[in-house]
Amino acid sequence: MQSSQVKRISSRHSYLVKGKRMSTGSIVLNYAVMIIVALISVFPFLWILSASFKNNENMSSIALITKHMTMVNYSGLLKFIHFDKYLFNSIVITLGGILIDIIFSSMAAYPLAKMKFKGRGFISGLLLSTMILPASASLIVNYITISRLGLLNTFAGIILPGSVSAFSIILLRQAYLAVPDALYEAARIDGASELRIWWSVMLPSVMPTITTVGIMDFINKWNAFLWPTIVAQPSHYPIATALQSLNGQFTYKFGYIASSTILSIIPVVIVFMMFQKNYLQSISGAVK
Amino acid sequence: MVEIDLNHLYKKYADGEDYAVKDFDLHIKDREFIVFVGPSGCGKSTTLRMLAGLEDITKGELKIGDKVMNDVAPKDRDIAMVFQNYALYPHMTVADNMAFGLKLRHYSKTDIKKRVDNAAEILGLEEFLKRKPADLSGGQRQRVALGRAIVRDAPIFLMDEPLSNLDAKLRVSMRAEIAKLHRRLNTTTIYVTHDQTEAMTLADRVVVMSVGQIQQIGTPEEVYQNPRNMFVAGFMGSPAMNFFHVTYKDGVISDGKQVTLKVPEGRSKILDAQGYNGKEVVFGIRPEDIHSEQAFLDTWPDATVEADVVVSELLGATEQLYLKTDASEYVANVNSRDFHNPGDHIKIGFDINKAHFFDKDSQMAIVAEPIPLESMD
C-alpha cells in the first residue's frame, strides 16, 4: 500500500484512501476480497505453469510445487510437434490481421469523422450495429465466401474474415473527431491533397489510438481459435488451434498441452506488459 | 499587384434559417491592411473563410486579381492563413511546420531551408526550429503560425483572430509585431478580430460588421470620429460611447431631468433642417469628452450637470468614473489629477461640440450629409 494513497488521519481507526475515509476493518476486508479474487483468477494460470514442469506421475496433484519438477514436457513437445511451424503460422496470421485492420480501419474511420457526405450517420450506425452480432453468427456466411473464393486452407482464408473490425473503426473515428478541424484547414491551405492530409496530418495525430488498435488486435488474433479449425487444415493452424489438436492425439500427455500453452502465451504476456498502460487507458476510454 | 473584390457575397449555412453574411461588398486594394471587426457571430470569420475557400459562397462573386475564385480550391488561391488556435501540426518540428507547404509545392531543399531560416530570423525563432509545438509557449506558437504564412511568400495573408488566445501583455507586443511585419512584407492582409483596439491600431481600413452585415467601412479615424450609426459608435472605442435618450427642442436637448444642454448652433441647424425639432433623439458622447476639471466647467457653464460617482477606477494617467445623474448612468474618462472617490457628488461638463446625434428608430447618425457605408477617398 503506498503512502500517497493511504493517509493516516486524526482518528485512530480510520484512514483516508484515495480521498475516501475508511476504517481499518473495511480496508482489511477490501484487500482480503481483492486478494481472493486475484488468486482465483491467477490460479489456473499458475496451475498450468506448474503442470508444465511436472512429470506424468504427479500431474494430477493439486500442489503447485512437487518434488520432481522437470523440463521433460518442453523438450518432448519440441520433438513431438512442429512447434516452430505453428509459431510461424501464428505470427503470419496475427501480423497480417493487424496490418489489414490498421490500414483499412484507419482509412474507413477518417471520412466518417471528418468529411461531410450524405449517409455518413447511417454508415456509422450500420457499423455500430454489426457489433451487436456475435462473431459465431457470421461463421457460415464467411465459410461460404472463403470457399467460393478458393481460399480454404490458406493464410488469406484465415486472416481476411474479421480482420477489419467495426470496433477499430469506431475507436479511430472518435480519435479523428478529436483532431481540431483547423489542422485540416491549415493543411488544405498549405496545398495538401485529401490523401496527403490524411497521411501527413491526420494519421500522425491518431497514432496513440492506432497503437491501441494494434495491441488489442494482437491479443485477439493471437488467441484466435475457432475460425482456423473451420477453414484450414492443421498445416495452417496457429498455436492456439494446434493445441486443441494435441488434446485429441495425446490424451495422456497433458504435460505437452501445459508446456505448449505456456510457450504460446509468452508473446501475449510480453506485449501486454510492454503496452499495459496504453491498453488499460484505451479500454477505459472506449467505454467512457 | 493583388486586388481583391468581394462582390455582394452572401452565405447561408445548410442548417441556418437566415444568411450568416448578407450583401458583403468590398474592394481591397493591393498591400492594404483590412480589419474585419465586430462582436462574435457577426459573420466576420465566415467572410474570411469564404475568401480562403474554406466555406462555399452561397451567392455573389469573389475575385482575386482578375480571376473569379468562387470555385477555386484553397491551395490554388495563393493565400496564407493564420488561425486562432495556431493549427500547428503537433507531430512536426517548428521547421517542418513551416516547410510543409513548401514541400507540397515542390520547392528545392536549399530554397526551403533559406526561406525557413529567413522567417525564423524575422520572428526570432532560430533556437526553436527543432522543437515540437507542444514545447513552445503560446506566443512562440503564434510566431510559428505566422512563420508558416511568411515562408510561402503568398501575396495575401488571412488572419483569423490570431491574438485572442494570448494573454493581455503578449497580445499587445504581438500586435506591434504584426504591424511591423506588415510594413516589412507589404502583403495584402485581411485580419479578423472582435477587439476594437486591434482594429484601430492595425488597420488601414476597418470593416465594422454586425449580424452578418457591413455597418461601416473606413479608416480607423473615420469610423471613430464619424460613426455611421449607433452600432459603430458603440462598438468602436473603449470604454464605449455613452447614449442618452433626450428630446430636442429649440436648440436644447433634455432628458426631462438634470441633463439639459444647449446644442451648438451648427449642430442645431442640422437637427432643425431634418425635422427633429420637438422630437426624441439619441445623444451620444464619448467618455473622453466628459470633463471634470474646473477650467472646462468655468468655460462651458451651459454644458454642466451634477453627478454621483458610483465607481472610480484609476488607470494611471487617466481615471474612469462611473457616474449617475438621476436615472442615467454613464462613464467618463478624466485626468487622474482630478481624482474622485465613490460617493462623491461632483459637477461634470459635456463637450457638446464632440457630441453625436442619432435617430432613435433607424439608429443612423443625424448629420448634414448621410455618411456613406464606405467612405470614398
Automatic annotation (TrEMBL), chain A:
The chain crosses the membrane at residues 28-49, 86-110, 122-145, 151-176, 197-219, 254-275. It comes from the Bacteria. It is a multi-pass membrane protein. Keywords: Cell membrane, Membrane, Transmembrane, Transmembrane helix, Transport. Residues 87-275 form the ABC transmembrane type-1 domain. It is found in: Cell membrane. It holds the Pfam family BPD_transp_1. Belongs to the binding-protein-dependent transport system permease family. PANTHER family: ABC TRANSPORTER PERMEASE PROTEIN MG189-RELATED-RELATED (PTHR43744), LACTOSE TRANSPORT SYSTEM PERMEASE PROTEIN LACG (PTHR43744:SF3). This is Carbohydrate ABC transporter permease.
Automatic annotation (TrEMBL), chain B:
Keywords: ATP-binding, Nucleotide-binding, Transport. CDD domains: ABC_MalK_N (cd03301). The keyword NADP does not apply. One of its GO terms (molecular function) is ATP binding. Residues 4-236 form the ABC transporter domain. Gene3D superfamilies: 2.40.50.100, Nucleic acid-binding proteins, P-loop containing nucleotide triphosphate hydrolases. Pfam families: ABC_tran (PF00005), OB_MalK (PF17912). It comes from the Bacteria. This is ABC transporter ATP-binding protein.
